[in-house]
Amino acid sequence: MNGLIRWFADNHVAANLLMLVIAVAGLASVLSIKQEVFPELTMDIITVQVPYLGATPAEVEEAVCVRVEEQIHGVDGIKKITSTASEGMGMIMVELNRGVDVRKALDDIKAEVDRIVTFPEETEKPIISQMERKNQAIDVVIFGDATEATLKILAEKVRDDLLALPDITYATIGGTRPYEISIEVSEENLQAYGLTLSQVTQAVKTGSLDLPGGSVKTEVGEILVRTKGQLYTGEEFGQIVVITSLDGGQVTLDRIATIKDGFEDLETGSFLDSKRAAIVSVFRTGDQGVLTVTSKAKEYVENMKSQMPPGVELATWHDRSTIYRGRMNLLGKNGIFGLILVFLTLTISLEFRLALWVTVGLVIAFLGAFWALPFFGVSLNMISMFAFIVSLGLVVDDAIVVGENVYAHREMGYGRLKAAKLGTLEVGGPVTFAVLTTIVAFLPLAFVGGVMGKFMLNIPVVVIAILVFSLVESLLILPAHLSTIKLAKKDPNREPLLYGRMKIKFDTLVQTVLHSIYRPTLKYALSHRALVIAVGLSTMIVTLGWFASGHIKFTFMPKVDADNLIAALTLPQGSTMDDALEAVAQLEESLEQTLAEFSQGRPEGADPIVKHVSTSIGSQPRTNERNQVSTSGGAHLIEVNAELLVAELRNIPSPDMAKRWRELCGPITGAVALSFSADLFHGGKPVYVQLSSPNTEGLLAAGRQLKAELATYPGVQDITDTF
Predict the structure, then answer these.
(1) Are 585 and 603 in contact (CB under 8 A)?
(2) pTM score, two decimals?
(3) Who's near 629: CB < 8 A, 6+ residues apart?
(4) Whether residue 40 has pLDDT greater than 60
(5) How high is the pLDDT of residue 164?
(6) What is the 3-state secondary structure (H, E, C) of 469-506?
(7) Among 76, 274, 342, 657, which residue's Cβ finds the most Cβ atoms within 10 Å?
(8) Of the candidates 178, 167, 384, which has an alpha carbon nearest to the alpha carbon of residue 283?
(9) Which region holds residue 719: left if phi is over 0, alpha if psi is between -120 and 50, else beta?
(10) 540 falls in which pLDDT band (50, 70, 90)?
C-alpha cells in the first residue's frame, strides 16, 4: 500500500487520469441510473388463487384452502403457508426460504396443485403466480356526472393514449366493474320450449366462436380458411338460434332469455370529490424513471382536460414523483451546503487550495458511488438517497485528516512532494482502518433476510461504495494534488489581506482553546484516571437505565408525516352498497369537520388544505399497497383517502389531523375494523398477535376477548382482526 501511495504521488498524470475516469463514469451513471420511489423487489412469495364463486368463506376453507395446503406442504423450500378464505375466493400465500430458486418452487407448486382432482366443479382454474411489487407512478382519474359506462369508455381511451406515449408502457384501469353479458333463462321458458339449461348453454357456446378451417391450395397460392363467429354484444347473442323446427321455424335466444349487456354484478365503486370516477393507473417498468413517466402523464392530462365531455373532469392522483422529487431536492441542498461548509472551514483553518482539493475529493467520492450502484442492482430511490444523506458526514474525515497532516508537514519545512508522501503515509494506516471499521458497522445490513432486508441492502451498498471511493481519493489522488500546492510566503512587513486576517484570528482562537481549556482538562484527566473511568461508567449506566425505563422510545419505523389522510373501514361480509354508502357518509362528514377545524386561522386566500378526496367501495387500494397484501372485493371494504397540501404549505402535522378525524368520526355501526393513518412509511403494526385453533367459535371468542383486553391499555387504538 505504501508503494502505491508513493507511486501515485510521483505520477500526477496517473492520479488525474484516475480522478477523470471516476468523474466521467459517475456522471454517466447519474444521467442513466434508474429512478424509482422504492426499490424494485422480487418477492419470495408464491400465491395460489382459486375462484369459487358463490361459496361462503367456510366452504372455501374446506373445499379449497385445506386441500391446497395439504397438497403443497411437502414442496422443498417452503417457509410458511398462509391461507385466506373469503367469499368466492381462496387465496394461499406461500413464503419461501431465503436463497430458494423461486422459479423451480413455482413449477413444483403448479405441478402439485394440478394433481388435485377433488376441487368442486364450481371452482375455476387455479391462478398460480409469483407475487410482484408493481411500481405505480401516478393515477389519472376521470370523474364527473356521467354513467359508469361513459367513464369506462373514456378510461379505455385515456389508457390507450397513455400507452401510445414513448415513455409509458404499462397502465391499467380500475374503479369500474368489468364488462359482462348475462343471459338469464327462466324455468317457465325452458319448460315451454322443452329445453334444458345445458342445451341453452351448448347453443351459446357453439353460436359464438371463431374456428380455423384449414387451408385450400389454388393455382395462385394457399388460402387459409377461417370461420368468424365470435359475438361481442348482447344484441348479437340474442340472435343465436336455439331451436330449429322441421318446417324451418327458428327460436332465437332473445325469445327465451333475458340478455343484459352491462357490468358484473359487483358491489364496488370509486368516487373523487363525491363524483363517480374511473382510474387509470400508470406504472414504471424496467429502467424507466419515475420523473419521466409522471411528467408525460401530467402533460397528457393538461392537454386533454379541454377535450373531455361536459361534466367530466380529468385529474392526477397519487403522484409518487412528489415525494421522490422532495427527497432529491433535500439530497441536493444538503450536499451543496455540506460542501460549502467543509470548504469554508478548511479555508479558514488550513489553506485555500488545500481546502479546494479536499472538497473536490468529496465530489469524486460521491460520483464514484453513483458509478458503482448499477453493478449491485441499486437504483436512485428513497432508501438509497437517504443513505447518501447519511454518508455526507462520514466521507469528510479521511480527506481532512490526510490534507491536514500534509499541511502540517509543509509547515515543518518539508518540500511539496516530500510532505505529500510523508503526511499521507503517516496517517494512511489509521485512515484505512477507520474506514474499514465504518464499513464493518454497515455490512451486517446487507445480510438482513426477508422483504425488509431487500430494502435495507440499498443502505450498505451506497455507504460502503462512498467510503471506498473516498479512501481511494484521499490516499491515491489527493496526495498528488497536494504536492503541487505552493504555500504562500509570509511577509512580516506586509499588511495581511482580509483572508489572512481571518486566518490569523481563527488560529489565535484555536490556540487559545487548546492551551487554556483543552490542555488543562486533558492534564487533569490523565492524573485522575479513576475519576474519569467512574464518570464514564456512570454515564453509561444512567443512559442504559434511561432507555430501559422507557423514557427513550423505540420504534422500528419512524413516523413521517404523509400528504394523505387515509381511513380504512371493513364492514361485515355480505354488507350491501347501501350499508357502505351510509358508512362513507359518516366518514366524509367527519372529514369535512376535521378540515374545517384545521382551516380556521389560515391566511385569507390561502390554498385549501385538501386537494381531492377519493373514496373506494369494494377495495382498499392504498391500505393493501402499504401492507403488501391483496384482498377480495366486496361492499364490506371501504377506503377514504384525502390528498393534502404539501407539508411546507399547510404547516399542520397530518397525524394530528388523523387523530382528530378519528375522534370526530366515532364508532361506525357494524364496523369490523376501522383505522386512520397519516404516515409516509408503514413498518407493520406495533402489536401483532396471531391466534390459531381448529375450533372456529373458540377462536372468535378468544379474538374478541383479546381485543377487549388490548383496548384497556392507554394509547392502543385501531384494533382490528383479519378473520
Answers:
(1) no
(2) 0.77
(3) none
(4) yes
(5) 92
(6) HHHHHHHHHHHHHHCCCCCCCCCCCCCCCHHHHHHHHH
(7) 657
(8) 167
(9) beta
(10) very high
